[in-house]
Design goal:
mainly alpha; 13 helices; globular
């Protein structure tokens, strides 16, 4: 799993070029001459608040990870949690595709720490189940709320009803799978070392329903035994959305909160594209959503670009450092149970 230095350098160069094109060429292509003026004239207090909110978002992520994946009273678990989550977040930024890069790195780090494969699979499935359960519930509630006029803001069907229905179908499918599929077994399984790549691929695909089922069941069980760390599932999304809202405030007026929330979640769907950092896809998705809601394109662009700067860069430096610390850590020295 370990990324080579050459690959890291290649990804970093791609990110540099992509970000340069995005922040220099996008405003020009869009024909929005005042965008750079707005970027230079943003309110520093709102931007400082956005920075603090992004840090709180990452702290919430680590708190949930600590509560679900590496629970226990030992202080060493906090250090392990910090390193694994920050390295995983950095990998998610560098290797998008719905966060697959972060998932792979996190699983690798947990196995390296000495955690059994079956334990890793079950706990991490629960962790993701809680995180994305909040995602789906938010899309349903906000989409329906806007469409029904309960929440203030415009209500274009394509960005309210359609996402809510899609999220409802995904949620219903996951719940159905959790009822009809057996418990998740050891992912190392019988195909772990035999049969070549095709056998491992079939085993991996076959484990997807069981992983979903395990995540849903584990999430429901965790909610029956509430712990403060579970609030991290809400905090991860809420604080990150608040960063986007603060960026709007830094450069002008913010749209209604419900509009910010639904545009954020719908735009984030572009993170499924295999683009390092999701650069371009997420920005375009969010800006497009805001313009459909009637937000001026220039304001939407500058707010989203500023938000993405915080979301991309804050975890990268500590995340890369944490990654190399994990590489240097001898197997089992950061042991978690």
């Amino acid at each position: 799993m370990a990324l080579s230095r050459r690959r890291l350098i290649a990804i970093a160069l791609f990110l540099f070029v992509a970000i340069a094109l995005l922040y220099v060429a996008a405003p020009a292509v869009a024909g929005i001459e005042e965008t750079w003026d707005r970027l230079r004239d943003g309110d520093p207090w709102w931007l400082a608040g956005a920075f603090a909110l992004e840090v709180l978002s990452f702290a919430s992520y680590m708190a949930l990870f600590r509560a679900i994946v590496v629970p226990g009273p030992d202080g060493g678990g906090w250090l392990a949690s910090y390193r694994i989550t920050m390295a995983g977040l950095a990998a998610t930024r560098l290797l998008a595709t719905a966060g697959a890069g972060g998932v792979v790195l996190t699983v690798w780090a947990l196995r390296r720490s000495g955690m059994a494969a079956r334990t890793v699979a079950r706990r991490y499935a629960t962790f993701l189940g809680l995180l994305y359960g909040v995602y789906m519930a938010s899309v349903i509630l906000v989409g329906v709320g806007l469409a029904a006029g309960v929440l203030p803001g415009p209500s274009p069907v394509v960005l309210t009803v359609v996402p809510a229905v899609a999220a409802g179908l995904v949620t219903a499918t996951a719940l159905g799978v959790s009822v009809g599929v057996d418990e998740l077994g050891d992912p190392a399984g019988s195909a772990g070392g035999r049969g070549g790549g095709s056998a491992r691929a079939r085993a991996l695909l076959g484990s997807v329903p069981a992983t979903i089922a395990s995540g849903v069941r584990g999430g429901i069980q965790a909610l029956r035994e509430p712990r403060p760390g579970l609030l991290g599932a809400l905090g991860w999304w809420a604080f990150d959305i608040a960063v986007l809202w603060a960026c709007f405030r830094a450069f002008g007026d913010s749209p209604e909160v419900a509009v910010v929330v639904i545009s954020y979640f719908v735009g984030m769907a572009a993170n499924t594209l295999p683009i390092p950092g999701g650069i371009g896809g997420i920005e375009g998705g969010m800006v497009g959503c805001f313009t459909v809601f009637g937000v001026p394109a220039g304001l939407a662009l500058v707010a989203v670009l500023s938000y993405r700067a915080f979301a991309l860069w804050i975890p990268l430096v500590p995340g890369v450092i944490a990654y190399f610390q994990l590489l240097r850590t001898a197997t089992g020295s950061d042991h978690v149970q």
